[in-house]
Protein 1
Amino acid sequence: MGVIWSIPQDLVTSVGNWMYPVELDKEETYYWNRNTQIKWDKEGADELLREIKERLSPFKEKKQTLNILVIGPTSCGKSSLCNGFKTTLNQKKEVVQFFRVGRREDESYTKNFQFTTLGDCVTLYDMAGVFESRHIKTEDILSIIQGRVKFTGKIDDFMNPTPPATSEAQNNVSCLVLVLKPGMELPVHLKRIIEQIHKTAGEGELGYHVILTHLDEVDHCFKDTQNLNKLFSSPVVQKKVEYISKQVGTPPNTISFVRNYCYETQSDINSDVLFLHAFKQIINAACEQEEKRAEFAAAAAAQD
Ligand SMILES: Nc1nc2c(ncn2[C@@H]2O[C@H](COP(=O)(O)OP(=O)(O)OP(=O)(O)O)[C@@H](O)[C@H]2O)c(=O)[nH]1
Ligand SMILES: [Mg+2]
C-alpha cells in the first residue's frame, strides 16, 4: 500500500492557488554575516592577508594610492582601530601605539589628520573626532569627504580644515570609514555628516564602510579574545548591528564589528583575524570606488 503524505495544515498558508511554507523560526533573527566562513587561526589570518594583497596588487603596480579616511565621534575608538590595523597588517607581536589614544569623551584627543602607510599603496588617515561639533560647517564636511582639504593639515578651533595650496593637490578619498560605538544615539551634527556621506556616495564619488568598536562591552564574553569566533552568532551583536544599520541608513553588509586592543600589549591571532576581516571589507569598498572612478573617467574621455 502506498504511503499518503499529509502536510500538517499549520505549516502551510495558501494564497490563491499557491501554498507557501510557514516560517518555522518564529523568533526574530537578524542575519548579519551569518554565512561568513573564516578560520580563526594562523592559516585563516594568512589567507585574509593574501586576499587583501591580491586585491591591492593592481593598484600597487600602477603606483596608485588608496586613501582611507577614518572619521567618527570623539572617543569612539578611531585611533585604537588604526593601531589595531597597523599591528595586524605589519604582523606585530607587540600592540602598536602609533596613534595616540585618549581617555576624554568631551574633547577629541587627536587634533589633526594623522596618517600611516599600509601595504605600500594604502594611506590610512586617523581624524580628529570633530563631526559632532556644531562648529563644523556642512561645506567643510563635504570638503573633507571629497578630499578637497590637506590631509596633513590641522583643523583649527573653528573646525576649518586647511585647504590645499592648489586644486591639483586634491586627494580622492577611496573609502570613508565611519567609526561608531554600538547602541549610540547619533548626535544631530553627526547626522549631518551621514547625510553628506550618503549624498556623495549616491553620486558615485565615495566608498564607505561602518565600523563598530567596543565589542567587549556589548557582550562580556568578548572580553576574552578566545571567544571572538562567536561574533556572528551572538544575538546581542546582531541586535546592535540591526540598530546601527537603521540609525545610519546603511545595509548590514557595510558594517563590521571589532574589539580594539586597549588592555593588551601583545597581539593575538583571533584579534588579527577580526581586524583583517574588517580591513578586507574596507579595501574592497576602496578598490571598487577607484575602479568606478576609472570607468567613469574612461567613459567621459571616450565621449570627448
Ligand atoms: N573597551 C574598549 N575600549 C575601547 C575600544 N576602543 C577604544 N577604546 C577606549 O576608548 C577610549 C578612546 O579611544 P581612542 O582610540 O582614543 O578614540 P578616538 O576616536 O581616537 O578619540 P578622539 O581622537 O579623542 O576623537 C580609550 O580609552 C580606548 O582605550 C574597544 O573596542 N573596547
Ligand atoms: Mg583619536
Protein 2
Amino acid sequence: MIKEIEFYAPANKKELFEIIHNNRDTHLIAGGTDLIININKKKVSPDIIVNLKSVEELNYIKEEGGIIKIGATATHSQIADSLLVKEEGLALAQACKSVGSTQIRNLGTIGGNIVNASPAADSVAALLALDASVLLESLEGKRKVRISDLHKHAGGIDLNKDEVLTEISFKSNKKNIFSYFVKFGLREALAIVELSVTAVMEIGENNFCKDAKISIGAIERHPVRARCVEKKFVGKQLSLENIEDSIEKMSEFTAETLFKTPFKDLISYKKQCIKGVSREVFEAIYYKAFQK
Ligand SMILES: Cc1cc2nc3c(=O)[nH]c(=O)nc-3n(C[C@H](O)[C@H](O)[C@H](O)COP(=O)(O)OP(=O)(O)OC[C@H]3O[C@@H](n4cnc5c(N)ncnc54)[C@H](O)[C@@H]3O)c2cc1C
C-alpha cells in the first residue's frame, strides 16, 4: 500500500517555523539528494515533508560588512559559479564544484550537505578551514554556532528538533588570504571523497605566514582541523622546504586520527594518499602568494 505523505510548501520563514512548531515529526527537504535516498532505503519514513526551496528568502549569496553570507538553500552549482565566492572564499567554490555530478550540484544544497553530516561532506571540509558559522533558527529564536562546534563526537550535528539551518557565514578573504581545496576520489565523475584537504593561509611580506587553517575530510566521522600542521606554518616563511615538512606531518596526523576510528584498515592507504593531495594544496597557495 502506498503511504500518504503530507507536503507543505511555506512561502516564507515565518510560515516555515510555524509549520514545524505546530506539527510533530516533520521532515525538511531541500534538494532531496540525501533524503529521497534515505526514504527509498526505508531509513526514514516521514508523515510530513516541508519544502525549504519554496522559501525564497533562504536562497542568496551576498557580502555584508566583510562577511560572506549564504542562504541554506543555495545549491552547490550556485556557489561554485558565484564570482563573489570564487574571489572571497575560493576553497568553498572548489569544494562545491567537486560534489557529485551536474544534476546533483543543481539540486543539492549547502544546508542539506551540512545537516546530513556525512564524513564525506565536501562543503563542510572547506567551511571548517574558512572558520565559518551557521545560523540555526526556530519560532523560539536563533543561535549562531561555529562549524567547528556543530558536529557531535559520535556523528550527526547539534541541531534541535524545531531548528532550521538558515545561513552560513564566513569572513571574506582579504587580498593576502589564500584558500584552496583539493579532493581525491576514485573516479572523475560522481566521486564520493576518499580524502580532501583545504587550507586557508594569510601570507604577509616576504611570504611570511601570519595564519593558517587546514582541514582534512573523510578521515573521521566529520572533517577535522589539522592544528598540529597549522603550527608548522604560522610565524614562518612559506617555503617549499617548509611545505615538505608539513606534508610529512599531514601524513602522521592522518594515521593517528584514523587509528582512533573504526577505519584503521585505511591507514596505510590514506597516509600515502594525503601526501599528494596536501602537496597540491600547499604548493597552489605558495605559487599564488609568490605571484602576488
Ligand atoms: C549520486 C550522489 C553523489 C553525491 N556526491 C557527493 C559529493 O561528491 N560530495 C558531497 O559532499 N555530497 C555528495 N552527495 C550527497 C548530497 O548530494 C549532498 O549532501 C547535498 O548537499 C544534500 O543537500 P540536499 O539539499 O539534497 O539535502 P536533502 O536531501 O534535501 O536533505 C538532507 C538532510 O538534511 C536536512 N536538511 C536539509 N536542509 C536543511 C536545513 N536548511 N536545515 C535543517 N535541516 C535540513 C533534511 O531534513 C535531510 O535530513 C551525493 C549524493 C548523491 C545521490
Protein 3
Amino acid sequence: MSRFFSTLNYSSVNEDWRTEARALEVGPGDRVLAITGGGRPLDLLLPGPDRVVAIDAVPAQSALLELEVAAMRALHFDAYASFLGLTPSSRAERGRILDPLLAAFGPEARAFWDAHRSLVGRGVLRGGRWERFFRMGSLLGRLVRPGKIRRLFAFEDLDAQRAFVRERWDTAGWRWINDVFLSRLVLRHVLGDPAFHAHAAVEPGRFVRERMQESLLSVLARDNFMVSLTLRGRLAERDLPPRLTRQGTAAIRKRLDRLEIVTGDVIAHLEAAAPGTYTRFSLSDVPSYLSQEDFERLLDGVARAGAPGGRFCIRLFLSRPRFPERLAGVLVREPDLERRLAREDHAFAYDFIVGRIAG
Ligand SMILES: C[S@@+](CC[C@H](N)C(=O)[O-])C[C@H]1O[C@@H](n2cnc3c(N)ncnc32)[C@H](O)[C@@H]1O
C-alpha cells in the first residue's frame, strides 16, 4: 500500500468521461465532488458547474492536477499538449516550461515536481504507474502478435472488425498471455495498485479479456482510448477527453477558478461536510480500495453530504460490494441507466452505481 500512496499512479485517461457526463448531468448551479485520479475533474468543469472539489488520498494525484491546471492556464493548446506529452517535445523544452509554472504551486506540489522532473521531461501523461504497466503489456502484446494488433487498429468498418475479432482474435495463446500478465501475482507484485487485488471479487485477467472482447464487437479499436492504451501503449487521437482537446480546453480554461484541489480521504471529507454540500458525486472506482464496511460509510457520506435531487456515479472495477438495502430509498439507483453505461463505456471493465438522491 505504502508504495502506492507515495507515487503517481494514474497520469492520463483511465475512464470514459462521457459516462460521468450522462450519469451526472452536471450544469450551472451544481457543486461537484470528484475523485482526482489522472485529472478527471477537469472534464466535469466543462458544463459550467458552480464548483468542483477534486479529492484524492494520494498527494501525487493532486500534484498532477495542479500541474495540469497551471499548464492549461499558462499555455496555448499546442504548447500544453506537447508539455504534457500528448504530442512530441524534448526534455529540455518541457523542463524550461516547468520552471515558471512551479511558482504557482502549493508547497507539496512544488516539492513533488522538483523531485520528479524526469516524469515531466518524458511527458507526464506517460508517467503513471498504471500507464507504465500497461505500456509494458502492450509491448508484450505487440511482440507476440504484431500483425493482428496492427490489423485491429486499421479497421474503419465495424462489421469487418467484428468478423476479425470473432474469428481471429481470441486464441488460446492470447488468453494465456493475457491471463498471466493480469494474474493476481503479477498485479500485486509488479503493478502494486490495491485496486487490482485488495478487494477483487472477479478474476482480473479473464474479466478484463472478456470485457475487451465485448467492447471490440461494438466500438472500432481506433476509436477507443482504453483499447489503444492497453494494446498500443498510447491514447487514441480520435477518442480524447475534453481536457486534452483544443476545443475542450478553451472552455475548461475559463472555469479553472471554480476548481478546488484537496488531498485526503473522501470518506472523512464527506463525514465532515455539512448536509447538502454537494449536488453531484463522481466517485470513480473508489470502492476498489474499500472494505464492505467502508463502502457503506462512503454511501452514508454521500447520503449525508448530498443535496436532495443530487446525482451520484460510482464505478466498480473488480470489486463487487453489496449495496445496502437500508439505503435503497435514499440513494435511488437507476438500473437501466447503469446497464447502458456499462455497455457503452469505452473503458469497458466497469460496472456502475448511478442514481439520484431522494428529496
Ligand atoms: C482507480 S483510481 C481512478 C483513476 C481513474 N480511473 C482515472 O481516470 O484517473 C481511483 C483514485 O482514487 C483514489 N483513492 C482511493 N481511495 C481513496 C480514498 N479513500 N479517498 C480519496 N481518494 C481515494 C486513488 O488514489 C486513485 O487516484
Protein 4
Amino acid sequence: MPTDDPIIVIGGGIGGMSTALALAKTGRSVHLVEQAAEFGEVGAGLQVGPNVMRMFDRLGVLDAVTEIAFFPENLILRDAMDGSEVYRLPLDAAFRERFSYPYATIHRADLHAVLTEACRAQPQVRLQTGCKIVSVEQTPDRVHAHTDEGQVLTGTALIGADGVWSGVRGIVLGDGEPRITGHVAYRAVLPMTEVPEHLRSNSVVLWAGPDLHMAHYPLRRGELFNMGAIFHSHRFQRGANVFGDTEELHEHFSGVCEQVDTLLGKIDEWRMWVQRDRDPVDRWSFGRITLLGDAAHPTLQYLAQGAGMAIEDAWTLAERLAQSPDVPTAFHEYEQRRVVRTGRVTLMSRLYGELYHASGVARSVRREMLDGWPVEAARESFSWIYNGI
Ligand SMILES: Cc1cc2nc3c(=O)[nH]c(=O)nc-3n(C[C@H](O)[C@H](O)[C@H](O)COP(=O)(O)OP(=O)(O)OC[C@H]3O[C@@H](n4cnc5c(N)ncnc54)[C@H](O)[C@@H]3O)c2cc1C
C-alpha cells in the first residue's frame, strides 16, 4: 500500500503513467492524480522507435505492447504533389539488429491501457481521477499540492507530468506560454477495411508537400489505419482534440496527388491539435519539484519522439532516485541527463518539419540530398535517437 509520504505525480498521460510505473518498480510509493474524470488517451496512433521499445522492456510491458502493436516494414517519404517516392528506410532485420529492438506503431489508448494496468498491478501506486491540482509548494522536506476542491495532498516529492500547458511549470519556472508554431495537426483513425486496397500500406508513409504533409500507418496488428494531416495555419492559437475544419484542411491540400486526395476524402470528421513547443531550457527541477514529458520539453512531432522522451524521462528519473535517495540531488541529476537529449529532439524536430514541408528550390534540394543516400548511412543518422539511453 502507498505510504503516507508518497511521490506525487500530477498528470495521468503517457508520461505520468510511465513515471508511476518506473517509480513503483524501484520500490517507491506513488500517488498519481489526473484531472479528467477517467484515465485514457485520444483516439490516434503513436510511432515508437527502438529507444522506446527498450524502455517498455525495462518497465516490464514489452510483451503486452508487442501483442497490440503493429510493426511497419519501412519508413517511406513520398512527394505529396507528384506522388513519387523520395526515400525508403527499411525497418528490417538489419534495422532491428542495429538498434536491438524493432520500430512499432501503437494506438495511444492501447498503450495507455497497458501502462495503467501495469500500474494497477503495483500495490504501492495509488491512481486518482477527477483531481485537478491548482497550486504546489514545498518546504525543505515536504511538498504540498492543492486541489481545486480545497484538499491538500502531501508527499516527499512532486513531478509535474501535466503536459504542454503545465500548471506546475507555470509555478516553478514561470516562463510563459508555449511557443506558437503556426502548425496544426488533424488526426483520424479508420478500420483498415475502409481503406481502398490499392492505398493500403504496411509502412509508415509520409507524403511531404509545401507547408504540409500527410502521414499514415497501420495500428493494432493492422486492423486500423491511422492518418495525420499537418499544415501551417495561424487561424487558431490553442486547441487539442477538438473538431477540425475539414474545409480548411482540403483548401490547404488542394493540388496534392490523387492518392493523398483520396485518402483525405475518406474522413468526414477530423480531430485537431494546435501545435505548440518551447525553446529548450537547461533547468526544470527546483528542490523537490520537477517536470517531465511535455511539461518539461514540449516538441513538434516531426521526429515522432515526444511520448518517447516522456517515457525515457520516467525511467531516468526513477533510476536517479534509486541511486541518490536525496530527492533534490536525484532530480537535478535526472534533469541534467535529459536536457541535451530532449533539447536535441526539440530542435531537430523543427528541422525535420522544414524538410518535410519544403517548397520550391528547397523541395528540389530535398530530393537531391536523399537521392541515392545509402540505407546504412540513413539508418545511422538516427542512431543518436534509436540507440536510446
Ligand atoms: C499530432 C501529434 C502526433 C504525435 N506523434 C507522436 C509519435 O508518433 N510518437 C511520440 O513519441 N510522440 C508523439 N507525439 C507527442 C506526444 O503525444 C506527447 O509528447 C505525449 O503525449 C506527452 O505526454 P505527457 O504525459 O507528457 O503529456 P500529456 O499527454 O499532455 O498528459 C498530461 C496529463 O496531465 C493532466 N493534467 C494537466 N493539468 C493537470 C492538473 N492541473 N491536475 C491534474 N491533472 C492535470 C492532463 O489531463 C493529461 O492527462 C505527437 C503529438 C502530436 C500532437
